[in-house]
Amino acid sequence: MLIRIRQIAIGVSVFLSHINQGRAQVLDSHVYKQEADYPFVIVSESGTNCAPVISDSVFDAISRGIHFRVNRTELLPSDPFVALYNKELRPMLKAQDMRLSQVFVRGAASPEGPYNNNIRLSRGRTQRLIEFLSKGLSRSADALPVKASSITEDYGYLVTLMKKANDADYNIVKAIWDKSKGDERYCKTQLMKYNKGKLWKRLLDIYFPTLRQARVILWFVRNHEVYEAPKVPFKTPLPNLDAQLHISMPEQKCAEQPMKYTRRHLIALRTNLLHDFLYVPQFGTAFGINTQLEYYPLDGHYTYNAGFTFSNHRHWDEHKFFQIRDLQFELRRYFKGEGQFIGTYLSAYVEGTKYGIGFSETKGWEGEGAGAGLSIGYTCNLNKKGSLRLEFSASFGGFYTQFDPYVWGNPVTGDIDGLYYYNYHGNSSDFKKRNHSLTWFGPTNAGIHLTYDIIYRKKKPVYNIQK
User: Fold this and answer.
1) Which long-range contacts (CB under 8 A, 24 or more apart) does 112-118 make?
2) Phi, psi of 149 (to 5 degrees)
């Protein structure tokens, strides 16, 4: 009972400070006007082509929250925003000859669930809200002008709520969040450990339900010169501002920018420069072709790789050969999650090889082998888009091969007849191909790789944390 009373008190404090923060931002109202009865609605004249610049503090001050059930992404028909949008905002849009020019939306999940599931929830809630708004305008979700982000676990907003409520633990939570430098997983771990979990339990009871929401700001452009206030005011208790909110914009004219979609990896082409420009002692330069394809899911930590190495050097006069056919499959796990696929990674691989290698008339081998092991690597971007990357890797594992030595000329008679023979001594009826074998444990590969995205996602926005 005491926890419930305290939760209500803090909720009222947050609500009142929300109003005060909105009122504190009273500046010039000549460019953008904030609707008094709809604090999350910004209106401008038809001559304004630049979208308002919405900072995090402004978004927290005026955005409207739409709440969701635990572990669900469906928009609740009973949520007050549904009735508000259908019965008041859409009629106002038509009656005042206004067009919806921009939607600013952020979806999030409450932190108590598993992190990977919260990624799904935050993105799903963002998308459900966009679909609802577009359906009301009879437009596809892709055609709606949206600036969207999904914040998996919104600790930044949690800190804001605690500051507004003058919470006694505000400095502790803020210090942990600042130390995490945006790493939500680290922040979650530290908060759960602090004071043997008592702080986490308190946040769970008081603040986390508020974070289970998508928040939105709508920007309308009015085409008529005369604008009348809506006849039916919105009755749900929202901050009723005494004046207009000013959103700053550059003085120079700016053209309306088309919606930009986030570019994300889908399939990348990679090559190992050490294989491409290989130098082998006793043989010399052995240029090869190393090609790898990596598939990137939309989120998570894991990627899937397939690679092929081909080399076909044959110097008959010098009796030197370097012929390699190697196929490899690899599963990678990047330490950095949320579909970023950059930085340090660990991987497991399997490979199959067929080879023919010769250094002289008496030193040559051909055979087949297979291996498996682990790799560690690091990937960094080489351009701003992140489409070109540099990678370093080292592999360790086991390799088993069966092979036969071969020599120039008949090894039994010693005749040089222009042919190569398996280097086998004994009864020919006892000969069995691949008489020799070798098992190796230790370093198996190294790489300096160049990676380039040949196919990437760009048709639909992918929501990242935006600070």
Assistant:
1) 112/204, 112/208, 113/71, 115/152, 115/153, 115/184, 115/185, 115/188, 115/337, 116/300, 116/337, 117/71, 118/152, 118/153
2) -150, 150
Residue 18 has phi, psi (to 5 degrees) of -60, -45
Q: Is 181 left (phi over 0), alpha (psi -120 to 50) or beta?
A: left
Q: Are 264 and 298 in contact (CB under 8 A)?
A: yes
pLDDT tens digits along 244-264: 333 343 343 444 444 445 567
- 19-69 pLDDT, tens digit per residue, is 343 333 432 345 677 777 788 888 887 666 677 778 778 888 888 888 888
Which two tokens mark 300?
């998570």
CA distance 120 to 108: 10
DSSP 114-148: -HHHHHHHHHHHHHHHHHHHHHHTT--TTTS-EEE
Angle, CA of 206, 212 and 217, to the nearest 5°: 115
Residue 21 phi/psi, 5-degree rounding, is -65, -40
Task: Give me the helices (H) in 194-236, please.
Answer: 198-206, 208-211
Q: How many Cα atoms occupy the beta-carbon half-sphere of 66 within 13 Å? A: 31
Confirm if 220 and 45 have CB atoms less than 8 A apart: no
Beta strands in 231-301 (DSSP E): 264-272, 277-280, 284-287, 289-295
